[in-house]
Write a structure and sequence with these properties.
The protein is α/β, with parallel strands linked by helices. It has one domain: 2,3-Dihydroxybiphenyl 1,2-Dioxygenase, domain 1. The protein has two helices and eight strands, in the order βαββββαβββ. Strands 1-4-3-2 form a four-stranded mixed beta sheet, with helices on one face. The radius of gyration is 15 Å and the shape is globular. The two termini are 28 Å apart.
Length: 117
């Protein structure tokens, strides 16, 4: 039924958001248009970063209204790599089925790494 999936994230600073998702997280920049939209890709996920001024549309929301997860093979390696790029982690959860660790993007949106057992 579904062909693919994507998520849109409203951002106040598109340049800073693109830098974080591409340089810090290592996602691939697909395209950027007119300082208002950029599309980045992770395996199996497309993320649209939208910067809409004033009356043009939705503005960035408060953090906590969404989260984006990235599944990894080796959690500790992923944590160390992102720490070396300035990411600060919080809320490490180790469950029977998976390990999860949370962090935030520059807008305060919650992101997480998950390693299934």
């Amino acid at each position: 039924m579904f062909k693919s999936g994507n998520v849109s994230v409203m951002v106040a600073d598109l340049t800073k958001a693109v830098e974080f998702y591409v340089e810090t997280l290592g996602l691939k920049l697909q395209h950027e248009m007119g300082g208002h939209f950029a599309q980045v890709e992770a395996p199996g996920l497309t993320i649209g970063l939208l910067h809409l001024d004033g009356e043009q549309g939705t503005q960035p929301q408060t953090s906590g209204s969404m989260s984006i997860g990235f599944e990894v093979e080796e959690l500790e390696l992923a944590i160390e790599t992102l720490k070396s790029r300035g990411v600060e982690f919080h809320d490490y959860v180790e469950g029977k089925a998976a390990q999860v660790v949370h962090f935030s993007d520059p807008e305060g949106n919650t992101l997480y790494l998950v390693c299934n057992r």
